[in-house]
From TrEMBL:
Subcellular locations according to the entry: Membrane
One annotated Gene Ontology cellular component of this protein: membrane
GO annotation terms (biological process): defense response; response to other organism
Protein name: Leucine-rich repeat-containing N-terminal plant-type domain-containing protein
Coiled coil feature spans: none
Amino acid sequence: MKTHLGFKLLAIFLAGFSSIFTFGESQTNPIDASVMLALKRSLNQPEDLGWSDPEPCNWMHVVCSEDKRVTRIQIGHQNLQGTIPLNLSNLTELERLELQWNNISGPLPSLNGLSSLQVLMLSNNQFSSIPIDFFTGMSSLQSVEIDNNPFSAWQIPESLRNASTLQNFSANSANLSGKIPEFLGPDEFPGLINLHLAFNNLEGELPSSFSGSQIESLWVNGQKSDAKLSGRIDVIQNMTFLKEVWLHSNAFLGPLPDFSGLKGLESLSLRDNSFTGPVPMSLVNLGSLRVVNLTNNLLQGPMPKFSNLVAVDMTKDTNSLCLPEPGDCDPSVNLLLSIAKSMDYPTKFAENWKGNDPCADWFGITCNGVNITIVNFQKMGLTGMISPKFGSIKSLQRLVLADNNLTGTIPEELTTLPALTELDVSNNQLYGKVPAFKNNCHSFCMYKSKQKRFSRVQSPNAMVIHPRHSGSHNESVKITVAGSSVNVGAVSETRTIPSSENSDIQMVEAGNMVISIQVLKSVTNNFSEENILGQGRLWDGLQR
Ligand SMILES: *[C@@H]1O[C@H](CO)[C@@H](O)[C@H](O)[C@H]1NC(C)=O
Ligand SMILES: *[C@@H]1O[C@H](CO)[C@@H](O)[C@H](O)[C@H]1NC(C)=O
Ligand SMILES: *[C@@H]1O[C@H](CO)[C@@H](O)[C@H](O)[C@H]1NC(C)=O
Ligand SMILES: *[C@@H]1O[C@H](CO)[C@@H](O)[C@H](O)[C@H]1NC(C)=O
Ligand SMILES: *[C@@H]1O[C@H](CO)[C@@H](O)[C@H](O)[C@H]1NC(C)=O
Ligand SMILES: *[C@@H]1O[C@H](CO)[C@@H](O)[C@H](O)[C@H]1NC(C)=O
Ligand SMILES: *[C@@H]1O[C@H](CO)[C@@H](O)[C@H](O)[C@H]1NC(C)=O
Ligand SMILES: *[C@@H]1O[C@H](CO)[C@@H](O)[C@H](O)[C@H]1NC(C)=O
Ligand SMILES: *[C@@H]1O[C@H](CO)[C@@H](O)[C@H](O)[C@H]1NC(C)=O
Ligand SMILES: *[C@@H]1O[C@H](CO)[C@@H](O)[C@H](O)[C@H]1NC(C)=O
Ligand SMILES: *[C@@H]1O[C@H](CO)[C@@H](O)[C@H](O)[C@H]1NC(C)=O
Ligand SMILES: *[C@@H]1O[C@H](CO)[C@@H](O)[C@H](O)[C@H]1NC(C)=O
């Protein structure tokens, strides 16, 4: 009985306690309340906001959870001024912070540790800086909008890596500098859909890590830094979810990539860059495309003809197209463009090769009437490969590709050129064999018969087959391959013979090695014809 009464009393006591406790819960969490009151003060006690109740959980535009923690502050477009209190990060249950379109100023406080925060809308204010640890621990973050704030210069911080759940990141006109971080790629940010970084001071290239990303909307247009965003945009071809790509007003260059994988691409703005090469058919044929901006680049080849569904921004004469209307280019233009293709459509050519007639004073091209006789691309910073299509310029007499960074081999097709008298590919990064030119024996055999001296060319990684005097008649092809590692792999180091530069010893240089002509002679049966360079056995001989 006593025990029973004791239980009853205990039950009544507990009920009373719990009602007191519940009453306590109907109050805003005291920490959150103190931060909210601080926010109200720092926003200059805005009267229109409906923030007069002593309980912040009862305020307009504020939402609390059942346990009276502040989860939402939604005061966008309220004509607010003032600043944000430093301890906003004490609102640890905050899910949405919406302050957009006000005139709030001062530094943004760190929101370090707001692990429930999902949506952050701070655009169109007067915030003066953003701390480097701003995003630390924001492991629930889905959407960030911080556009149009006069931030002091900042870079996308490492702390953003904590927000790998991000879907939207929008920081247009936010004074961002530095590079677009590689970490924004799909490995760390698999859900990123909208990345808007227009009108900042970004530089560098589109990160190669973007390959395979799910990004649908990419705005990086209008970078104001001197360098702007630059480089090629090949990675775009692997961003197959893209619907909207705005790259305009930057310093991107090189050929346009293959667009055939971008089945949903609707809007592509590439204007005001330095893109070269033709507009790819993979873009022209894209069924989803509705808007394309190509004005003011260095695009080459024919004027593209898009479907009627596409709004095309391609002002005449603001590119390097062969004709102002759709239609085929002259075959000689197509030929030179196919040659430029293997060198990734160099900017230098795209700037100069205008119109439909390569003989009209095109850079590097000399003609006799309508026939191209000389191609001189010496020292133009070229990369890529020597196109086999050179073999189609039947009237070609001299081909000078010296002092570039070309790689690959010397194409066999060059041996078919009937009028070729000189091929100079010295000082490149070529490898492989020098092909057997039809009349090559004339020049090479000439060394044998006349004992011409081989001059030594000072250049690392060099192999020189370089006559001091070419033939006295022009039937032979003078071939210069100095400075390339043609066949260098086949040369054995044991044959190295040191020599001073002015030595009269007849020399062939290979890699860091110099081989005397006597050694060459001995391993090639006195340069017998079976061992002509390009037929292989010379180098087998050297290896023996
Ligand atoms: C937040 O800072 C304000 C002063 O700006 C202070 O009154 C308030 O007590 C602080 N709240 C917490 C939880 O630190
Ligand atoms: C408020 O946040 C700061 C920084 O995170 C922390 O040091 C402090 O302990 C917090 N104050 C309260 C009352 O939780
Ligand atoms: C915004 O605030 C700044 C001071 O921070 C003030 O000079 C400016 O007039 C305000 N603009 C508007 C539209 O309220
Ligand atoms: C992301 O941005 C899109 C487009 O602005 C918007 O519709 C969507 O609601 C945003 N996502 C989140 C989580 O806010
Ligand atoms: C933006 O950053 C640049 C440096 O990149 C700085 O000179 C400029 O003052 C910054 N703008 C503002 C509004 O702070
Ligand atoms: C946040 O990033 C830091 C390193 O930048 C890391 O140490 C920490 O574990 C991350 N936290 C979360 C919640 O991802
Ligand atoms: C595109 O993706 C393929 C397959 O993953 C990869 O091999 C290639 O390097 C990527 N190209 C670019 C330009 O990112
Ligand atoms: C792109 O072209 C469309 C259609 O002509 C035009 O409406 C739009 O303003 C252009 N965009 C830019 C950035 O020029
Ligand atoms: C141009 O080449 C063609 C065919 O190779 C030849 O018939 C013609 O005479 C050449 N013209 C000139 C001006 O060399
Ligand atoms: C050739 O490429 C190398 C590195 O690949 C670079 O260091 C060098 O400057 C380049 N030379 C020219 C002439 O472009
Ligand atoms: C032989 O070639 C040289 C240089 O390539 C040239 O100057 C000369 O005119 C040519 N001679 C003849 C007979 O074609
Ligand atoms: C190479 O020529 C020299 C004379 O110039 C001769 O003595 C030698 O036997 C020849 N060697 C071969 C392998 O033909």
